[in-house]
Amino acid sequence: MNSQDKSKSEILRQKIYIFIYGTNTPSGKLFDIILLGLIVCSLITIMLETIPEVNMAFHNELLVAEWIFTILFTMEYILRIYCIDKPFKYIFSFYGIIDLLAILPMYLSFFLPGSKVLSNIRTLRLFRLFRVLKLFHFVEESTKLKIALLSSRPKIIVFLYTVIVISFTVGTLMYFIEGPAHGFTNIPKSIYWTIITLTTVGYGDIVPQTGMGQFLASILVIVGYGIIAVPTGIVSLELSKQKHSRYTPKKNTATCPSCQATGHPDNSIFCYKCGSKML
Amino acid sequence: MNSQDKSKSEILRQKIYIFIYGTNTPSGKLFDIILLGLIVCSLITIMLETIPEVNMAFHNELLVAEWIFTILFTMEYILRIYCIDKPFKYIFSFYGIIDLLAILPMYLSFFLPGSKVLSNIRTLRLFRLFRVLKLFHFVEESTKLKIALLSSRPKIIVFLYTVIVISFTVGTLMYFIEGPAHGFTNIPKSIYWTIITLTTVGYGDIVPQTGMGQFLASILVIVGYGIIAVPTGIVSLELSKQKHSRYTPKKNTATCPSCQATGHPDNSIFCYKCGSKML
Amino acid sequence: MNSQDKSKSEILRQKIYIFIYGTNTPSGKLFDIILLGLIVCSLITIMLETIPEVNMAFHNELLVAEWIFTILFTMEYILRIYCIDKPFKYIFSFYGIIDLLAILPMYLSFFLPGSKVLSNIRTLRLFRLFRVLKLFHFVEESTKLKIALLSSRPKIIVFLYTVIVISFTVGTLMYFIEGPAHGFTNIPKSIYWTIITLTTVGYGDIVPQTGMGQFLASILVIVGYGIIAVPTGIVSLELSKQKHSRYTPKKNTATCPSCQATGHPDNSIFCYKCGSKML
Amino acid sequence: MNSQDKSKSEILRQKIYIFIYGTNTPSGKLFDIILLGLIVCSLITIMLETIPEVNMAFHNELLVAEWIFTILFTMEYILRIYCIDKPFKYIFSFYGIIDLLAILPMYLSFFLPGSKVLSNIRTLRLFRLFRVLKLFHFVEESTKLKIALLSSRPKIIVFLYTVIVISFTVGTLMYFIEGPAHGFTNIPKSIYWTIITLTTVGYGDIVPQTGMGQFLASILVIVGYGIIAVPTGIVSLELSKQKHSRYTPKKNTATCPSCQATGHPDNSIFCYKCGSKML
Question: Which end of chain C has a smaller Cβ tally under 10 Å, C or N?
């Protein structure tokens, strides 16, 4: 292979790189939309397979579809490694591992028939869907919400802590009041009931049947009704703080091809986090 | 027909026009209230027909009532077309199509007996009820709420997106933890369960029965309990922003007879949107 | 009866008046607390009577207790009429009618045995309990909440209106999707299900069983999840407005003996509303 | 025992004191973390014992574990008394009584076999877990939330009061509408149903079955849906007030060994509350 060939291959590699990683370029946006469409379609295929009637009727079609998706994702995976400068950084990154786990089970199913079931790990590829938000200028809003949640984290931890202590205390109490005969078969189950009740879900699979238990449950739900006000107040507060602070979000939506870091300054040549070459 | 006749008919047409479309005139207000009364009564008729005991006892009375409403709505529809300058704009507008669909099924039931059931499309006429708010000066408040919801749209989309990704991921997980034996018969149903749980509805038709599933459900509801704080915070923020901005709502409640656009300046002669003659 | 006797009786009447209506005096406060204690005790008696086991064991004791409460309330009613200047204003006021209805059924039960059941109307006397809040300086907070709710009334009406229109539309739709076979026996019941679902109560007595119905329910609950943010945002806003406005609540807690109006200026001699003599 | 021995023992006592009560010292922090780990482990042991399958298989192991925890907690209790200056203040303090009640039942089980069940009182030791928050600088956030809740207390009392009056009134009404045949067997149970419904928990163990009852339930849940906005608005308001007030939290996390009071100024030698010697 002479230098001209090498250069040609280098140009091709560069083009593929722009196509796959270039979130800011038209071709990169196109790739992202196609990829997300494929992920959603492959998830629908997996879902349909779990419905016995559908699987019975279209077993072969679904199997073929799944193989097509697996092969496409495999090609994507190989191209991602091929066109990048530091392939190992991608391979061992969060998305790199998910991308591999999403295709591996299908190939394993040749040797281990049961392993096909693991291809549901593909669901985790849904997180890639968060990137589609970047395409539609939602990145700023998304960042605002993230900041609000992060800055209210200490308050939320204290809140969750209180919820857990209440759940344990009331759960134990209910176990002794109602007992196994009324569905509170053990303390962990009793705590599960308390959480389901306190959060106002209320399945009704376990319900207090003694007067005492119903009285305690009534108090618990009124307390829970008041408690829900706390996280709401916290998040409202943090969001309203942002209104006042002049927050200038980074509109650059490029993602580092190696470490998937975002928030690069405009015209970045190297990733600020791992030093890989950026687009 | 000489010009005097034509003029007379033109005056009548003008009067009908004012009566039907003139939301700001006393006769127009009267028409709106009568119409809304008729819509509500016709809906009650349809509802009562679905209760077997009532339908058995008053079958003929209900049928007569339904025909009376259909004939009145037909007359309204014909008059709406007759008195307007550009009838096709009304016919193909959102409300025009609904108005037609609301009366058509009853006539079709002569030829196709089963089609009467479609007259339930009449429910959509309920949206006309939003116009009654205009009569009671709620238009300003309604606009404020609409603005708050619209301006918090990007945040709400990000929020809904997160809810959907959580639902898919947890739904798939629960399918494998609980399995078809415990009611999680397939992944779409498992996702349905996740949404019903995350939103704290909790029907209890499908409930986790393994310890692992109950543990995951507990975490899910506590997360859901926290997540509900986000849209609340968002709407609170947007509403409080309005307080500071000097919002001067357009109090003119006239609706364009052709395109149903609202928000016309006072004394408008032509619609600002479609150019039709206004009242 | 000479004038001295009359004067003596007048002084007694005045004393009783102060005792019963004088919310601001020590003896008046004592009376209110005793009365509220009696109301709560009489309600507990009525409640216990509805529990068959308790009623069986303590039938006579409960009956005696109920008669004691009825006689005490009758005495209170007579004294209220006796010591007031314009007794008819009290008799035909809201509380006057409730006070009469609370004692009448017990006397009627001599002639009509079944009418005793009506003595549950006594529950409405619970509203008198709101007066006890005055005794503990909660009147200001209570007024603030009332103002916040009143000033957000137009927004809340628009909100409720939207909830009702959604309930009717989705309720009708679900009736056709699920049908009587799955518990959606008629449209009113289907609307009931929609309201129970939209408000995230979710009893589970009626649940969608078709895939289409479950899909629609999922969308409905996510919408409902978002909708709950609206009233919260509204009330938050109104409460925070109060913070800025220098609200000076009327601390005078006297109630007009005739029309039960509150909010009188200090040292009022006549009720600002009905002109009756105040304490 | 000569004075040198006494001094030695005094130094040891001082060291133990620092270890147990010195929340601010490294050794004190270590002790707190170890203690909390032990409490959590002992709770898990008690929980596992209530699951019949686990108890069957590991009965002896669990019994041994429970005895180990009891002995460790006993040692902790003795050391706490030993190293403190005013032991009776600790013994009769809130935590002192809980600490004793947590170990007593196991010893009693020698004489009274059934009393072992009472060792679940150990759950209350979970409240000690709130101290772990101090270790991770959450004390400030925790204080902010506590202040917000305390200052919104009058509003919350008015709110709870309204919820209770609604529950009693609607509960009594529903008892007469639905009656014992539909699960509303008595008024207290009917009130329990009202609370479960109003707070949007909705177990579904008791549901209205008449049209009238379902109509009332629909109104109740829509009201409840609106009511939940009130505590949320209150807490939001109080939290946002804190934002403006320059709140300077006391970062000193030392706890008085006698009365468990917190919030001491830095370098405190004596407790500001009970005057005991501080670390």
Answer: N
